[in-house]
Amino acid sequence: MAHSKINADIVVEKLMQVFRSIGYDGASLAELASATGLKKASLYHRFPDGKVGMANAVLDYGSEWTDEHIFSVLHASEPATERLNAVLDAISRLYDGGQSACILRAMSQGTAVDIFKDRVAGMMQQWIDAFAHLASDLGHDSNAAEKLGKSALIKIQGSLIVAQTLQQPSYFQEALNDIRRDFIR
User: Fold this and answer.
1) What pTM, to 2 d.p., does this model score?
2) What is the average per-residue pLDDT within 2-26?
3) Residue-range domain boundaries for the chain
4) Coiled-coil region(s) at which residues (predicted)?
5) What is the CATH number of domain 2-183?
C-alpha cells in the first residue's frame, strides 16, 4: 500500500510544516494530503482521528525533539554556559533562524486552543521550567531563575512572531542573544 512507502517521520514533518505555516484551522485535509504526498484515505489510515490525530502526532514529534535537543541539554551535567549556548543554537536551527513559526503558536490559536490548550500549556511550562533550572545552575536565585525561565519563552515566542511579521529574522537572533546576556552574569 502507498501509505507504507513514506517514512512516518517524514509524514509528520510535512504535516508540521503545514500547521506551522497556516495554522490548525487553515490546514485542510487536501492541503495536508498534498504536503505529505499521500491520498486522503492514506492519511486517514495513518491517522484514524483525522486532523486532531495528525496534530497530536505533530505535537508528539515536537515534544520528542525538544526533549532530546533542548530539555536534556538544559538538564545535562556539562558547564551551564555550554548548555545555554548549545540550546540557543538548537533553537535557532529549530526555527530556521527565525523564519519558521512555532508549532505551539499554531496549536494555541483558533479552534486549536480549545482542543490542545492543556497540552500546549504543559509544553510551554516545560520550557519555562527547563530554562529556570539552567538559570539556577548559572547562580541565579530561585525567584530570578523563574523570571528568566518565563522571559526566555516570551522572548523566543514573541520574537518569532515579530520576525516573521516584519520579515526580519534578525529580530529572532537578537532575542536569542538577549537571552544569553540575561542568563550569563
Assistant:
1) 0.90
2) 86
3) 2-183
4) none
5) 1.10.357.10
